[in-house]
Amino acid sequence: MSASTVLLDVESAAPAVGEDQPLAAPPAPDADSVTDRGAPAPSPLLSAGSRRWLLVVCSLGVLLVISSVVSLNAALGAIAVDTGATQSQLTWIVDGYTLVMACLLLPAGALGDRYGRRGALLVGLAIFADASLAPVLISSSPMGLIVARMIAGIGAAAVLPATLSLLTTAFPEDERNKAVGIWAGVCASSALVGFAGTALLTQFGYWTTIFWAFAVAAILLYILALSIPSSKDPDATPIDWWGALLIAAAVAVFVYSVIEAPLRGWSDGLVMGGLVTGTALGLLFGWVELRLTHPLLDVRVFRRPDMLTGSLGITTMFFAIFGFFFLVMQYLQLVVGYSAMQTAIALCPLAVPLMALASLTPWYLPRLGLRISVAGGLGILATGLFCMRLVHVDSSYVDLAWPLVVLSSGMGLCNAPSTTAITGAVPPNKQGVASAVNDATREVGGALGIALAGSTLAAGYTKALAPAVSVYPDEVQELSLGSLAQAFAIADRLGPTGERLRTDAKYAFVEAMDSSLVMLGGVALAAAVVVAIWAPGASGLQFPILRRAAYRGRHRR
């Protein structure tokens, strides 16, 4: 399942250069280059071995908190039976963690910059461990689980930006892309690892073993993190508490509305009001930040084409892949009949191109540039999603596996370059905030992907199945149209006639999944076109027409 940036006077003017030359001043928001001008300066104190150990610890940290986003999906059935949780409570046992983490990422990143990034990592791990122990030691009621997961989200918000900012401030330029690539690859693969791990735990043990496992992992990682070096903002810039409050409220309201949309409908007053309010709070945050001497996030940095490209790339990638996970997990378990463990194994091909391309980032990014890497990656991702439309009710695993490799290759191609672009646009003393922006775009994109894929799936399923169930009593129609799982439950009670309902429901689901895949692929393809036009190329420059427009705009001011 991460919703998803600088404290810098980006108004410093670029030196007088020709409009066709890359700007050389660090780092102006309207700079046309995607080089490391604003990138972090490496620590001269760390040996190669220390940097490798730091990479291991930080990769384990991001693996822990991101895998927890989807970890309970494999155990929701057992949790519902044992605790009596309603469907709404089950939703918030999963999404409460994501909501709290997403809204606190930027404030937590700023605190790490100000007081120390290792300290933020340690505090976050301690909170995460305590919150993971609470359901098994204090209360395993539905409300107790929701509260514990939300507290764990506080810890995750501190851990996530700290893991990336510790890396970007420690690695020299010639090694940084590879380190960030590995971190980004682990981050993108973590959801699959989390689902597989918890599926294994629930298959051979009680669902509370998931919380024990997370607590033990957090404690062990805390011990390991004591051995890594720290870094922080040497200027001790004051925290912008008003900005922190505004952005936390904006993200919280917006993400809450997105999570509720599939349940209530996008036209529901609460959902519409929340989306408008969240957007308004975000705009107010930007207005306030422009008027502060020490803002939490100088929003003018988004004038940089590399920053905007990286943010769009990450948001779109997680929008598409989390929406895809939502679809394919139901397809494999309900239509194909796989267990949770078999589903996790079936999705393993996703990890291979992701990690392979992550390690190759230092080789292909300088050669291809940001434009081809991100636009090409999103285009390949869209192609993989469109190819998934070839999957049907009776498809073999091979029919599923090769589109998985295609879309994963697209993810791997654009994942690390997008992250590198975001962190490289921000100075070293604000890497915690830069990392938080990178993480927030992931969370918001993922939440939107699940919500829109779920809404499209629900509408398409109802439309496709309605004619087939019109011959059944009203109660059967209502339950069958609710979801594929409910249709199966009704079919089991209907005896011989239920097999026909089961088959019709499967075909309706696959038809609806096709519509959702078209939507996800269309968004990814549209983003690829925007990036292909807007992003800087291998030279670090945008297309001449965009450079001339930016040049005229600067001189008009």
TrEMBL record:
Where is the region Disordered?
13-40
Q: Name one GO cellular component term.
A: plasma membrane
Domain Major facilitator superfamily (MFS) profile: where? 54-539
Q: Where in the cell is it found?
A: Cell membrane
Q: What GO annotations for molecular function exist for this entry? A: transmembrane transporter activity
| Pfam families membership | MFS_1
Q: Which UniProt keywords apply?
A: Membrane, Transmembrane, Transmembrane helix
As for membrane topology, the entry says: Multi-pass membrane protein
Q: Which organism is it from?
A: Mycolicibacter terrae
So which domain of life are we looking at?
Bacteria
Residues spanning the membrane:
53-80, 92-112, 119-138, 144-167, 179-200, 206-227, 239-259, 271-290, 311-332, 344-365, 372-391, 517-546
Q: Which SUPFAM superfamilies match?
A: MFS general substrate transporter
Protein name listed in UniProt:
MFS transporter
Q: Which PANTHER family is this protein grouped with?
A: EXPORT PROTEIN, MAJOR FACILITATOR SUPERFAMILY MULTIDRUG TRANSPORTER MFSC
Show the InterPro entries listed in the entry: MFS, MFS_dom, MFS_trans_sf
